[in-house]
């Protein structure tokens, strides 16, 4: 249990959020495919990304950790081809990380390896068929060890053949898995229906010299290129930045800057929503890192308007929706969130869990299969005591409601705060420092 107290004063100053989680996962998982040692600086060292690092280690990559950076060489990482029936079984614990699991499935399906993948209770409840089915259509041999469509499972590497696959959900994880399997497949592999889902895999594989063409709704990959090693600085995570930014929007007198933040348009949908909410913010571009635009975003406290959210923009802010829902709870008017049914298949059922947390704070919420309606209360939450919010072990729920606690009159009790370590281990310290005037930029 953690008491998230009301803010003791405005949030001020500059904060640098940790390295981007999606880019870190990809850098760690793709480095062993390069033609030599790759260097990754500014990577996110958190529970989820450490699962990817441990996975490539047990798969044979050579890893050297420096102060802040990592050097990863291919070592004995499995090559493309058929695994023999006698190949040693590699056990990989993916913990809470859907990205580790789904990207590994694509990475390993066409390589000389046998692996058993498992995860925690939350990950075991999440859908894997969306990756397993198209991989099987390419020739992958994957066997569920428990319930159909769920972890744990076993994968037996096989030579693959490229396919064209239309996704039913615009998922960057499914897209990435298929592009990775396509690197080892005969012929080309096409992924349709990616919409505005994050494009870090395409960018990174292209930078390594892979034959990846197209973008958005139709992406092709061909095997056969030698992939180059890389040297990259991971930019700050916009999904983590959402929490200090939202805190500043809700606490009177606040004015903050998040520096060094990745500004990739497939990840910054939240800034479009800020505009609709009437937030005045500035973005200063400062260069690029890992082939991604980077800059600072500054904003401060002010009145918020309700907003509507849906359609093709959902993938550009999918992980920010719990935080946006908390902002909506303090905006004037009724906010409508739709087309986000996949939120029910994240680390928790983020529609049900967010709605329950808001209701505990006295907010009127109507749940829909693919979203929710939230009646904003700019005047404050109508509760006379601190309230308990159940995080269901979900890092983004914990941080979103810690922010609600800052904006409440009596605070919020989180039943679990350790889960923030999945993506933003320094979250509580950063919020504390900003209340004391901010960290050096
Ligand atoms: C991620 C993609 C998103 C996102 C997740 C990370 C990625 O999932 O919710 O936190 O790194 O590719 P989907 O692609 O399944 O929507």
Descriptive report:
The chain folds into two domains: 2-17 and 238-435, UDP-n-acetylglucosamine1-carboxyvinyl-transferase, Chain (Alpha-beta prism); 21-221, Enolpyruvate transferase domain (UDP-n-acetylglucosamine1-carboxyvinyl-transferase, Chain, Alpha-beta prism), CATH 3.65.10.10. The chain is built from 13 helices and 23 strands. The protein has helices at residues 21-30, 47-58, 98-108, 121-124, 129-137, 172-182, 200-207, 238-250, 269-276, 321-328, 350-360, 395-406, 427-435, and strands spanning 2-4, 12-16, 38-41, 62-65, 69-73, 89-93, 114-118, 141-144, 153-156, 164-166, 188-192, 211-215, 218-222, 231-233, 255-262, 281-289, 292-300, 308-309, 334-337, 365-368, 371-375, 387-389, 412-414. Helix 1 (21-30) packs parallel to helix 3 (98-108), helix 1 (21-30) runs parallel beside helix 7 and helix 8 runs parallel beside helix 13 (427-435). The two termini are 31 Å apart. It binds shikimate-3-phosphate. Shikimate-3-phosphate (S3P) binds at residues 22, 25, 99, 171-173, 176, 197-198, 318-319, 342.
What is the strand and helix layout of this fold?
Blueprint (H helix, E strand, L loop, with lengths): L1 E3 L7 E5 L4 H10 L7 E4 L5 H12 L3 E4 L3 E5 L15 E5 L4 H11 L5 E5 L2 H4 L4 H9 L3 E4 L8 E4 L7 E3 L5 H11 L5 E5 L7 H8 L3 E5 L2 E5 L8 E3 L4 H13 L4 E8 L6 H8 L4 E9 L2 E9 L7 E2 L11 H8 L5 E4 L12 H11 L4 E4 L2 E5 L11 E3 L5 H12 L5 E3 L12 H9 L6
Parallel strand pairs: 2-15, 3-14, 6-7, 10-11, 18-19, 22-23
Antiparallel strand pairs: 1-23, 3-5, 4-5, 7-9, 8-9, 11-13, 12-13, 15-17, 16-17, 19-21, 20-21
Helix pairs in contact: 1-2, 1-3, 1-7, 3-6, 5-6, 8-12, 8-13, 10-11, 10-12
Bound molecules: shikimate-3-phosphate (S3P).
């Amino acid at each position: 249990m953690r008491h998230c107290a009301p803010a003791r004063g405005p949030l001020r100053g500059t904060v640098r959020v940790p390295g981007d989680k999606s880019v870190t996962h990809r850098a760690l998982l793709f480095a062993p495919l390069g033609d030599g040692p790759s260097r990754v600086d500014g990577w996110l060292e958190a529970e989820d990304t450490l699962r990817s690092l441990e996975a490539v280690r047990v798969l044979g990559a050579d890893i050297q950790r420096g102060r802040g950076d990592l050097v990863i060489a291919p070592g004995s990482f499995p090559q493309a081809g058929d695994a023999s029936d006698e190949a040693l079984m590699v056990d990989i614990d993916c913990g809470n990380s859907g990205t580790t699991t789904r990207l590994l499935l694509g990475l390993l399906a066409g390589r000389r390896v046998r692996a058993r993948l498992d995860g925690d209770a939350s990950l075991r409840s999440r859908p894997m068929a969306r990756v397993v089915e198209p991989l099987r259509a390419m020739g992958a041999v994957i066997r569920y060890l428990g319930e159909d469509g769920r972890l744990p499972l076993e994968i037996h590497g096989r030579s693959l053949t490229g396919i064209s696959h239309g996704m039913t959900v615009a998922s960057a994880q499914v897209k990435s898995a298929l592009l990775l399997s396509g690197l080892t497949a005969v012929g080309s592999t096409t992924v349709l229906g990616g919409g505005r889902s994050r494009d870090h895999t395409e960018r990174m594989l292209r930078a390594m010299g892979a034959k990846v063409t197209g973008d958005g709704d139709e992406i092709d990959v061909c095997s056969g290129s030698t992939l180059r090693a890389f040297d990259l600085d991971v930019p700050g995570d916009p999904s983590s930045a959402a929490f200090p930014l939202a805190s500043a929007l809700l606490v009177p007198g606040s004015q903050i800057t998040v520096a060094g933040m990745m500004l990739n348009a497939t990840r910054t949908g939240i800034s479009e929503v800020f505009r609709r909410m009437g937030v005045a913010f500035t973005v200063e571009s400062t260069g690029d890192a890992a082939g991604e635009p980077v800059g600072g975003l500054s904003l401060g406290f002010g009145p918020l308007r309700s907003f509507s959210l849906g359609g093709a923009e959902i993938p550009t802010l999918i992980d920010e929706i719990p935080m946006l829902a908390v902002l909506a709870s303090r905006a004037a008017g009724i906010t409508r969130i739709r087309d986000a049914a996949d939120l029910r298949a994240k680390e928790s059922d983020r529609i049900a869990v967010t709605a329950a947390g808001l209701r505990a704070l006295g907010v009127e919420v109507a749940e829909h299969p693919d979203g929710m309606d939230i009646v904003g209360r700019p005047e404050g939450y109508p509760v006379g005591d601190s309230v308990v919010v159940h995080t269901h072990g979900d890092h983004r729920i914990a941080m979103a409601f810690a922010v609600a606690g800052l904006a409440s009159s009596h605070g919020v009790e989180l039943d679990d705060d350790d889960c923030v370590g999945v993506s933003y281990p320094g979250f509580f310290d950063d919020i504390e420092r900003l209340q004391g005037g901010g960290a050096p930029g």
